[in-house]
């Protein structure tokens, strides 16, 4: 399936073009606690074996994200990098995350007796 607007555009460079692949940048992402704990455990135990697996969470995440991005590019953009994003991307929770937040807020209000102003 092709993504509308992701076709090659001579006015838009591919994402990541000209960036040193060894350059690191800190980012903050929200992950489920289960996935995070599994990632921590994998990195911890692999670091003690001396094997070829990732030995830090950053290394594990880099490998996983790179593999998924390459899969998405192959599946949706003829194996080419998607065009670079111009400007800022939307931040905050997606629809599922917003619904989880609403449910948690309702549960807290119910637990507090439903009175306004309690936190």
UniProtKB/TrEMBL annotation:
Segments of this protein annotated with the region Disordered: 1-26, 72-119
Report which superkingdom the organism of origin falls in. Answer: Bacteria
Q: What is this protein called?
A: Centromere-binding protein ParB C-terminal domain-containing protein
Species per Swiss-Prot/TrEMBL record: Actinocatenispora comari
